[in-house]
């Protein structure tokens, strides 16, 4: 199966064509939205001609435009964390004030809140408005201690993807490896465009792992009015390419993302699916349900899947129904990760007593050394499952919770089976204690739990379990999201 990524017919080298077009789109949208109604709405993107943008860049500016996301405590409080988050940084880009040492009018001032902390920000200054200048003097310098490096750097770890910069709403701006080795007029022009996009954006989120994750901030934090788009048209925050890019029938809605846990990062969204959608998915899946399989680690080879998992499941594709296509778009809009990173939706049915023992959704390649297909799939660890979007399609009278045993410092490895998190429900929609986190099934709700850290490394704390159903039937579904386009979904 193949997938289509966003491209444009420009006379640029193929390696840089995609990111340049994206920057063109972002720059055009930001120039048209200086008077944004509120800082939390998603950034609409519109196509523009490369020539028009370059002409705009060459026009004298009577006064600097206001950044779309202001570097103020009122705005930043929705991104600052109470504890350091490895691989996550917040950067503020502003026009630099005149300096006795450097009176360049092109200088930028960059303030970086390392690891998402408000305390002790790091300040740097560029001498030009240029992306390579920003990387060299601010982001990749050893003085900043951010741990960022371009793929061409001698210190780069090629087992991980290059770092990337995003708007606070999850729109990719530029990747650390872009424009590394170029030294020509075209590169200089694009470097200036990147710098101006960052300046217009104001507040930028930096992810060492190269993929966007919703910042958790603190347990109980609510990120309100997150804009979702139903159909992935020209306003789609993920910028996926679809045949209906000129479709004006997109339905827009907003949701609230609530943080349930920081280690692992787990967030919850109520009402993501309607009652009718939940029923429809169950009816579609029912005829093809079979008892679930598992991918066995080296030390579990030869054991039956029922030793670990007793649910029934099936995979559905958007070719079967338009609703599934719309839900794929909705998931992409929610996660800010394009559809091309998704696997097909897996629908699950748990009857009385059925469960799925503790496991992680990422692939620890050290445990699959004998499995050539898994090693090839993951490129020996460079690509992996980034997140799981888990849909609850039914309420459950008793049991059926999703359990995260290592949340809140719980020591799962010292626990006996009698001490399972599943044995400590308190009846709430999500409960937490020294024994871990329990998320109770609620029809229409989804949770996102991240298998990778913001640094790009796997997160062992994402260990989770489907608790046995004690009364009733549990219907659920999941979308696995990868940190790289995987082409599972045929666009």
Brief overview, please?
This protein is α+β, with helices and mostly antiparallel strands. The chain has eight helices and 22 strands.
Q: Beta fraction of the residues?
A: 15-25%
Separate helix tally: 8
List the strand order in the largest sheet: 7-8-9-19-14-22-12-11-10
Helix and strand sequence = HHHEEEHEEHEEEEHEEHEEHEEEEEEEEE
Terminal CA distance reads: 9 Å
- What would you call the structural class? alpha+beta
What integer is the average pLDDT? Answer: 79
Helix content: 10-25%
Gyration radius, rounded: 23 Å
Please describe the biggest sheet, giving its number of strands, its sense, and whether it closes into a barrel.
9 strands, antiparallel
- The total count of strands amounts to 22
Unreliable segments of 5+ consecutive residues: 1-58, 231-248
- The geometry reads as elongated
Give descriptors for this structure:
491 residues; alpha+beta
Q: How does this structure look, described?
A:
Helices cover 18% and strands 23% of the residues. By secondary structure, the protein is α+β, with helices and mostly antiparallel strands. The protein has a 9-stranded antiparallel sheet. A 6-stranded antiparallel sheet has the order 3-2-1-6-4-5. A 5-stranded antiparallel sheet has the order 13-20-16-18-17, with no helix packed on it. Helix 1 runs parallel beside helix 5. The longest helix has 18 residues. The N terminus is likely disordered.
């Amino acid at each position: 199966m193949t997938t289509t990524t966003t491209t444009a017919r420009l006379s640029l080298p193929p390696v840089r064509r995609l990111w340049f077009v994206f920057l063109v789109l972002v720059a055009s949208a930001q120039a048209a939205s200086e008077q944004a109604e509120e800082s939390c709405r998603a950034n609409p993107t519109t196509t523009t001609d490369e020539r028009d943008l370059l002409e705009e860049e060459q026009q004298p500016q009577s006064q600097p435009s206001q950044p779309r996301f202001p570097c103020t405590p009122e705005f930043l409080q929705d991104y600052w964390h109470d504890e350091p988050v490895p691989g996550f940084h917040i950067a503020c880009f502003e026009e630099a004030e005149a300096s006795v040492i450097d009176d360049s009018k092109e200088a930028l001032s960059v303030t970086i809140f390392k690891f998402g902390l408000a305390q002790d920000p790091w300040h740097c200054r560029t001498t030009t408005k240029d992306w390579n200048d920003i990387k060299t003097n601010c982001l990749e310098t050893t003085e900043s201690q951010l741990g960022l490096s371009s793929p061409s750097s001698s210190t780069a770890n090629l087992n991980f993807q290059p770092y990337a910069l995003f708007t606070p709403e999850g729109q990719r701006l530029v990747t650390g490896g872009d424009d590394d080795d170029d030294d020509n007029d075209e590169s200089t022009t694009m470097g200036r465009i990147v710098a101006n996009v960052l300046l217009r954006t104001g507040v930028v989120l930096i992810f060492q792992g190269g993929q966007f994750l919703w910042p958790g901030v603190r347990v109980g934090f609510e990120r309100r009015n997150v804009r979702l788009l139903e159909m992935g048209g020209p306003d789609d925050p993920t910028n996926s390419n679809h045949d209906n890019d000129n479709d004006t029938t997109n339905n827009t809605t907003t949701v609230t993302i609530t943080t349930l846990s920081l280690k692992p990062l787990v967030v919850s969204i109520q009402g993501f699916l309607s009652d009718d959608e939940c029923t429809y998915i169950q009816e579609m899946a029912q005829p093809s349900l079979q008892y679930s399989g598992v991918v066995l680690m080296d030390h579990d080879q030869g054991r039956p899947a029922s030793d670990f998992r007793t649910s029934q499941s099936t995979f559905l594709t958007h070719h079967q129904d338009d609703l599934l296509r719309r839900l794929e778009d909705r998931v992409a809009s929610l996660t800010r990760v394009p559809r091309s990173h998704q696997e097909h939706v897996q629908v699950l049915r748990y009857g009385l007593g059925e469960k799925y023992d503790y496991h992680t959704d990422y692939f620890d390649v050290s445990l699959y050394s004998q499995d050539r297909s898994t090693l090839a799939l993951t490129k020996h660890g460079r690509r992996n499952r980034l997140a799981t979007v888990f849909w609850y399609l039914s309420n459950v009278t008793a049991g059926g919770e999703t359990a995260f045993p290592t949340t809140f410092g719980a020591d799962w490895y010292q626990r006996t089976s009698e001490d399972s998190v599943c044995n400590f429900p308190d009846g709430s929609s999500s409960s937490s204690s020294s024994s871990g986190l329990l998320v109770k099934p609620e029809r229409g709700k989804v949770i996102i739990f991240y298998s990778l850290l913001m640094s790009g490394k796997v997160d062992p704390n994402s260990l989770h379990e489907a608790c046995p159903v004690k009364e009733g039937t549990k219907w659920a579904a999941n979308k696995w999201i990868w940190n790289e386009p995987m082409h599972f979904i045929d666009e």
